[in-house]
Amino acid sequence: MQEKAMKEVKFRHGVLALGLLAVVMFACVVGLGAEPQIPLVIGCAIAGGIAMYLGYTWDAVLEGMVKGITDSLEAVLILMAIGMLVGVWIQSGTVPTMIYYGLKVVSPQLFLPITFLVTCAVGIVLGSWGAAGTIGIAFLGIAAALNIPLGMAAGAVVAGAYVSEIISPLVDGPNLAAAIADCSVFDLCKRFLVLCLVTCGACAGIYLLMGMNLDVASTATGASQVDALLVSLDEAYNIGPITLIPLGVMIVCVVLKVPALPSFLVAIAIGMGEAVLLQGSDLAQVVEVANVGVVSATGFESLDTLLSNGGIQEMMSTISIVVLVMAYGGIMQHTKLMDSMVEPIVSKLKSFGQLVSVTVFSGALFNVLLPDQYPAITLSTQMYRNEFRRLGVKNDVWGNIVNSSAGITSVLVPWNTCAVYMVTVLGVSCVSYAPYAFFCYLYPLVIVVAGVLFGKKLGWIGAPDAVTHATAVPVSEGSLEREGAF
């Protein structure tokens, strides 16, 4: 354990540690175009330096980092499994079949709602960036051919892609939130599923109304582009309902509450079998795909872009960010720098609705100050964890409340890494697509309204002694033994 700090840890110390990280992150990510890893290393050094100035020993700082990283180890295994699953599911025809059936129903008037819904479905498997960088690119090409405004089309793609950041157990955002909230990723994804689906329905309705009022006509170019993509998918893969069996098995595992890692491994094994039996791949090729991902070489450029994805190696950059973020959070938590910021804020909150509102606002603010999704999720979760537990709020509930903002507002901030990625792959500015990415700001508002008006009726608040971890020490100082993903 750390020695007692020689100096009192005050609000300004925690704000200084966070503020300097924000400055370094902004300068490196926005100014230099760097990835978040090095700014996070610098942030760890800054937080550790401040802690040592206050009287903590190096051993205490190191202990905080190690505990934070330890809490991320199961997340690392999950992310590796997700990379394997995506690559194998592409090779087995599961993902191509989902894309194929989605493109079969494209029409000018239905283009926006279909783009939103199909991107959402693909995102559940490939994640927000994977969906936007694959099927999203295809939809943008089709939109150009149909004379549909690209800002609208990109907004529908982005909104659909980021639904996965709320409801998909295959995506790193929910897995990170579940890890820090100390709950099963399946429980976290299911808890607010109804609210998420209601919001998706509202978004689809808005896109439908927009599409019905668009003055566009089906062009031969647009139709031929869709047809060419369908033909290429049909030629490259054995398309059919049987290839969706791995997806069905995954859904069954969710319903039966099978822990995340075994569920992924079962779905990967079935996908490998289908890749060999249905797609003609040899076992050595499938094993290689699970490691490095698929490198599509059909000769059809948009299809090859669509399906070159997956593999453990594809996830290593994400894993490094998660480990560094958890190391930084471990220092902040273990040396009380986090508590020094949180206590003055929560002491002024008078109701559960105010706590929900502040949490959602903080998540969006962190995405502005720290231009990357992972620090926003981590810090928002760690800041308000103890207050939610004091009120008897179940872990999967407050984990969702945090993720409802920190997990999806990042793509609305032009200098955030998520928005930079979307602009790069879609070729549409953040200012152009943000007004049409309805889900990314409607869903946080739905959570705030639900928390303020219906928190008790929805069962979000309970007696503190009824919550398993209500009075427990923070996750970084507690047990890691739990069922589910984390």
Automatic annotation (TrEMBL):
Membrane topology note: Multi-pass membrane protein
Domain of life of the native organism: Bacteria
Transmembrane parts of this sequence: 12-34, 40-61, 73-90, 110-130, 137-163, 192-210, 247-272, 312-331, 433-454
Pfam families, alphabetized: Na_H_antiporter
Cellular location(s): Cell membrane
InterPro entries for this protein: Na/H_Antiport_NhaC-like_C, NhaC_Na-H+_Antiporter
UniProt domain Na+/H+ antiporter NhaC-like C-terminal: residue ranges: 204-452
Keyword Cell membrane annotated: yes
Keywords, ordered alphabetically: Antiport, Cell membrane, Membrane, Transmembrane, Transmembrane helix, Transport
PROSITE patterns given in the database record: PROKAR_LIPOPROTEIN
Main subcellular localisation: membrane
Molecular function as annotated in GO: antiporter activity
CC annotations in GO: plasma membrane
UniProt similarity note: Belongs to the NhaC Na(+)/H(+) (TC 2.A.35) antiporter family.
Protein name: Sodium:proton antiporter
Gene source species: Eggerthella sinensis
